[in-house]
Fold these 2 entries.
Entry 1:
Amino acid sequence: MQQQRRTFLWLWLLWLAGFYSVWLYLVLGLGLWPEAKAHWPIAAAMAIGSYAAGSTPMGGGTVGFPVLVLLFEQPATLGRDFSFAVQAIGMTSASIFILARRQPVAWAMLNGAILGSLVGTPLGIWFIAPYIPGLWIKLIFAVVWASFGILHLYRINEIASHSGMTEFNEKWDFKVGCWIGLFSGATVASVTGVGIDMVLYTALVLLCRTDLKIAIPTSVIIMAFTSVLGVVVKNLTTGMQPGVFENWLAAAPVVALGAPLGAYIVALIGRKPTLVVVAFLCVLQFVWTIHSESAQLGITGIAVSVLAVALCLLGFERLRHWGTKLAGERPQPAY
């Protein structure tokens, strides 16, 4: 088995060789090194983001989006398109690494989510995302990630204790995956550039009570697929936002190694500490967003944002309760 893993890892090394050959051609052959060098801050930020991308169910855009939009004060649409672009490299690299190491994946639900995303993501890019104002994009990102972070802060022990996954009919898993891919691809991923991985992961750990060693690699692969799809669709139809390529040029060589490194290191130190840290960051970015946009939101907008987080958490708890019943277990309190 060990020899077999070493053999498959050559596929990942071949991917890296191909990517870095193209990147070197761009920066040296086409003289784009000054552009890459000028955007070094996003490369530094994505050193952290890429680790989170490979070791948690949150894509590299989880860091890239708030850094560009909140810290660098760039348009939310740029943060969204950059998330697609940078994850198309980092998450793809992590996915190839995961598959090369033959890590377990929830294939039935993943295949369904891929099919759903194949339909939902382009529809969202064409018919939903163009009509979402920049402020709403920020709030959707902030609310989804905050609720996800809070969920892990009070349910982390339970989530980390799962072993294997609840066995259902594979056709049922596939159908659930299809609906997840269709809905989250059309709404969350197309609008923010990230999120479909978190939705699929949430269904796996709350509904199917799936081991993190299965749920997280599965979420990485669906985000890789959706990111590549998003880049292709946007480049062929609506076009990417100005500034995406320059930031991608700086960050891509970092995430190509950083995301697989995160997938490897987390297997040594455990996923729970990383998830807790990232969960705190998710809550922090919500507070940061509300503070920076408080003038536009007003008291009503802030109250609605907090209510939206509460509704997301209520939905998570209903999903968990359903999963507990399906597994034939008595619901446990948060701890």
Note: Residues 294-326 form the longest helix (33 residues).
Entry 2:
Amino acid sequence: MTTFVLASHNQNKLKELERILAPLHISVSAVQFDEVEETGKTFAQNAYLKAEAACRKTGLPAVADDSGLMVDALNGAPGVYSARYAGANASDMDRIEKLLDALRGVPEQARKAKFVCSICCVFPDGTKITAEGECHGKIAFEPVGNGGFGYDPVFLVDGKSFAQLGAQEKDQISHRGKALRAFAAELEKRKEIYR
């Protein structure tokens, strides 16, 4: 079994990555490293910055993702600033409240949004694999459901919020699930670089 490191402190992301990469006989462990300043202007650029830093530190293949919410009525905001939307130490609920406040008075038909996830894997030899996934939905008027994390309670797909979905159901339709499956397919095609 090959070991990859995940350049994230987020245990939810680690669980998702483990579930999807297990069939490829890849184990994933989270790596503790100083937060990388996300100076990229795109999700893909930020994912690369994190993966490259983790690979350099550990000498192992490193996977990172950068993901966020883009709301049409807010011209794509919060975008790459999704995690920092309500300030550096804000909670998920702080971010949700700021988002709902920004959308106050916006009617249901104008609340379209999408989650975007960019994944980057950097290998010690400099090889890079990238993948991306999107999930389209809309923003609810109030949080619904107890599961998930981040903006999940206000992101609706087919009338249900991400926070109302089980892990398997969410994996099937989520931006991260789609990106991870695309990433796994790329890895499968290029086994020689990690086996």
Note: The beta strands are 2-6, 26-30, 62-71, 112-122, 128-139, 155-157, 160-161.
